[in-house]
Write a structure and sequence with these properties.
By secondary structure, the protein is an alpha+beta fold. It has 4 helices and 10 strands; from the N terminus they run H-E-E-E-H-E-E-E-E-E-E-E-H-H. The longest helix has 20 residues, at about 175-190. This is Ornithine cyclodeaminase.
């Protein structure tokens, strides 16, 4: 005879399905609505660093919030669900990223919450940068993470002709000295004598 834990559940019964999700749904129902603004620093030079700034506010309208972003690039806004603790995580394999603020922060209903990162490209071309916004919610007495929104942006990373030459010389200086510099020194020596 099967115990209640071993019996298959009736998945067609919505009451059974709803009960296992109710704690999560209740936690999500408690989330507030807030506005965010952030910048995408495109285009970028491969040798430069850029600042990415994110601001979250529960009172300011999007148009006013956009004006608070001082970092260069295209500034965007969105309306998202917000908890009293939020994590903002910026990532991208083609970038070295340094967080200048804690990724997880307490959110105020009266003051803006800000995140700041410095990003430096590792390569040239079309590079993807992703921003994850995660709410920390209380589910059955424990704090859990819930991904609220992910923003993915393509950053165009450029290199100048001078930077290409500099990189080539830096990477191939031994070959260049053997095939160009030594014959030039020999020619110069012969011209002097």
């Amino acid at each position: 005879m099967l115990t209640s834990a071993e019996r298959p559940t009736d998945k067609s019964n919505p009451a059974n399905s709803a009960s296992i999700f109710s704690a999560v749904d209740e936690a999500l129902d408690k989330l507030q609505i807030g506005n965010i603004a952030f910048n995408s620093p495109s285009p970028m030079n491969v040798d430069d660093s850029a600042r990415v700034e994110l601001r979250l506010d529960l009172r300011l309208p999007p148009a006013a919030l956009v004006k608070t972003i001082s970092a260069r690039g295209v500034v965007e806004y969105a309306t998202i669900k917000v908890s009293d603790r939020m994590t903002a995580h910026l990532h991208g394999e083609e970038f070295a990223i340094t967080a200048n603020t804690p990724e997880t922060q307490a959110v105020s209903s009266r003051e803006p919450t800000s995140w700041l990162w410095m990003v430096k490209p590792k390569t040239v071309g079309q590079c993807e940068l992703c921003l994850n916004l995660i709410a920390i919610v209380d589910i059955d007495g424990s704090r859990q993470e819930r991904n609220i929104e992910t923003f993915s942006r393509t950053i165009h990373v450029i290199v100048t002709p001078g930077q290409r030459v500099k990189k080539f010389v830096k990477e191939h200086w031994k070959w260049l000295s053997g095939t160009i510099l030594i014959p030039l020194v020999g020619w110069w020596w012969n011209q002097r004598h």
